[in-house]
Amino acid sequence: MTTQMQYAKQGDITAEMKAVAQKEPLSAEALRGEMARGRVIIPANVHHLQGKLVPIGIGKGLTTKINANIGASRTRASKEDELEKIRACMKYGADTAMDLSTGGNLDEIRQAIIDASSIPIGTVPTYQVVEEHKTIDDLQPSHFLDVIKRQAKQGVDYMTIHAGILQKHLPLTSGRITGVVSRGGAIMMRWMAVNEEENPLYQVFDEVLDVFVEHDVTMSLGDSLRPGCLHDATDAAQIEELKTLGDLTKRCWEKDVQVMVEGPGHIPMHQIQENVALQKKYCHEAPFYVLGPLVTDISPGYDHIYSAIGAAMAGYFGADYLCYVTPKEHLGLPNASDVREGIIAYKIAAHAADIAKGIPHARDRDDELSKARYAMNWEKQFELSLDPERAREYRTSGLSSGADFCSMCGPDFCSMRLDQKTRGRETFNEKKTGSKRSHRYAKDENDGAFADIATTFLKSK
Question: I need a surface site. Which of 142, 163, 195, 344 has the fewest CB within 10 A?
């Protein structure tokens, strides 16, 4: 099997590279070059490519991507619920989704998600290993390999592998408030403590890479020691594991396995730039995949808001891929409505980051929506919105669909209508219907005449 990275190193431009280049500001050749260098990835399992998968790119020079986490639990396991969530992911614009199921028929749920999904699907195989064997302490490295092989054959596009947490890192967590908050990391910590051996995924890392090469699965190096609160941010445990992840990144590239590196976590705003810089330094500019980061710890139920603040900043400073947080983070299993809220919050963060980073044409949509807003062209505003349904719902609440104003200012206190009236301009609705308002001032389509019109307006007052 030849991976996307191996093709890129050979100088070959694949159909997947061409498809991604058509949607991004890089040419196909520039994209290939970045993939050969390891700074861009296209998570695309060969089996999922035979289904509905539409390839996307993540990394340097590309638009910032977002991931949505879904998945069943032991307390609520339903294939239909997860299919509803993946449909919500695609509808509201998530670029990828991770199936983090820990309960139910995991193979059946995952296969249904992959078959239904046009976006890349990721997993954390360790969860299934523990669920199937009902133990952590007695697991063998072979158990992890068996599940990884099975998931790769199903079509999983990328997997989070918690191979970076080592025995030497564990004492560094002693001063933390929240300890090890990564589920995969906590499982590895428990196994190492009980068995007094090195991380089993670290032991079989080369064998894992062989499976990834066979099916072209992208490696997502899990940050087992990410901080779970602001107190623990950017501590020695986090940074030492990051250095190990940098070593594992090189091992992935040596076998032509595409790789990205996961990052924190709970990070105060003033440390976000430093964290992105450290990841790029220690992990050789591999794509950076951040959870949040969450910039405060005191708002349960609003995690999607305060984490999106950190996500926008991280994206601006160079993070390539943002893992969303829903309002249910720390509280419960999200439903389809929570998925929607998390996706839109992170679409906003990613888009804001792209504008700030100067991604070509990133602001075009904003400018078009602004023109539509000024022209009172409501349908165009809905069309350009990240969530057209929500925009339409709020717009028409208490008003007829044909109203030429919103309920905030009404027809008499609308600043844009006053501006148009002063400038002598028509709104979109007036042009569409042929109706005219009573203008007190002479119509002049030339913007240069605004000063004279404004003077007349002020004198009339």
Answer: 142
Count, residues in the chain: 461
Residue 417: its pLDDT value, please?
Answer: 86
Report the pLDDT value the prediction gives residue 455, as an integer from 0 to 100: 44
Question: In the structure encoding, which two tokens stand for residue 151, read together?
Answer: 């998931």
Using DSSP, state whether 88 is helix, strand or coil: helix
Same domain, 324 and 383: no
Q: Do 333 and 373 have their domain in common?
A: no
Of residues 301, 307, 310, the one with CA closest to residue 325: 307
Nearest to 417 by CA among 404, 398, 399, 403: 404
Q: What is the largest CA-CA distance in the chain?
A: 86
- Estimate to the nearest angstrom the gap between the alpha carbon of 161 and the chain centroid: 18
Q: Do 264 and 211 reside in the same domain of the chain?
A: yes
Higher pLDDT pick, 36 / 378: 36
DSSP character string of 389-431? HHHHHHHHTTS-TT-SS-TTTTTTS-HHHHHHHHHT---HHHH
Give the whole-angstrom CA distance, residue 382 versus residue 449.
Answer: 32
Give residue 233's pLDDT.
98
Cα–Cα dist 402/253, whole Å: 58
pLDDT of residue 438: 39
- Cα gap 82→77, rounded to integer Å: 8
What are the percentages of helix, strand and coil residues in the chain, rounded to 5?
50, 10, 40
Average pLDDT, stretch 222-228? 98
- Which pLDDT band holds residue 427 (cuts at 50, 70, 90)? low
Given 319, 335, 357, which residue is the final one in a domain? Answer: 357
Q: State the pTM of this model.
A: 0.90
Mind listing the pLDDT tens digit for each residue in 49-99? 999 999 999 999 999 999 999 998 887 778 999 999 999 999 999 999 999
Strand partners for 259: 219
What is the rounded distance in angstroms from the CA atom of residue 125 to the CA atom of residue 123?
Answer: 6
Pull the structure tokens for residue 399.
């008003």
Q: In whole angstroms, what is the distance from residue 16 CA to residue 8 CA?
A: 11
Mean pLDDT estimate for the chain = 92
H helices of 155-266, in order, are 183-195, 200-203, 205-215, 236-254
Q: Look at the chain and report how many structural domains it folds into.
A: 2
Mapped onto helix, strand or coil, the DSSP state of residue 382 is: helix
Query: Residue 73 sits in which domain range?
Result: 4-357
Phi, psi of 437 (to 5 degrees): -85, 165
**pLDDT at residue 406 above 90?**
no
- Is 325 found in the same domain as 372? no
